[in-house]
Amino acid sequence: VCEDVVVDEKRKEADAGEVLEGGDGSGDLTLSQLVREGKKKFKVKNAGSSSGVDIDVLKGAVLRYARDSNNLKEILFSRVDGFDCLYRKDTETLAHGKCVSVDVIDCYAAYLNREQVRRGQLKRWVFYSGLAQRVQGIVKNEGPLPNFFEETDEIITSCKWIPDGLDFSQCDYWMFPHCSDDHYRMYVVNLKNKRYDYLDSLYPDDLDSKFRAVADMVVRYATEYIPACRKEPFKFEEFKWVRQRGVRQRGGIDCGVFTMNFAEFWDGKLHPAMRNWQRQINQRRDEITLTLLLNKENSVLEEVKKKSLEFDRKVD
User: Confidence band (pLDDT; 50, 70, 90) for 285?
Assistant: First the structure.
């Protein structure tokens, strides 16, 4: 059973989607870039030095270089440890009007996780999208608990999803992005509000069997894995699925960006600031591109900056 949380019918639908009352749109729930004087200003977190080059010039060059249709196998982002690698064929999907690749979503989720660790503020933990499919197979076969733990632990550690020594178990929101039929959705174990949240920017009228299959996986993950790593007891049998119908995409290919927004900003409730997500969708695509490629953790950062500026000079 999945209950609906819907907007007040008396409230007019905003041009970017329906929103619930509540929240002031402040804090980390607003998009981190603003439009001023007709120019896009991006806040690139942990960006490397621009080496004397005007930062706006560098950002523009990087965006154009990342979306060039040539040499799609060139690596534009890679962590020093070799994990979370993005090729141009991935970054090119962040261009306006394209369907975002799953590798982009996973890399951005990993970035958000590491940012929380760096700040020492664990609130959300986003698992990589492949976890849902892998664990689904275990749930379907109803494997014994030891096998379940071995499989999930192997997946997590092999992807460096949980840094050594990190206790992520105190996070309020365990988030599982999932893609089926070329559509991304987010499943959330909401420990703070003691429920399961289903975030789908397309507002399906019916919850199909594919939703239920992943939902069953999330429930089993919650009931069998969380109690083993958290001391406080949870009555998961009382948790209900709640479909949060407050943020709606208008573009047919923007679900991946909405999923990344949920990963970064979801705190258990819908806020008025979220009504701008569709209107700012292209800004958001640009911001995510720049945040990943100009991040200090990018082992090919200097090469990307150099080649981007050279590419711009050739085009000019």
Answer: very high
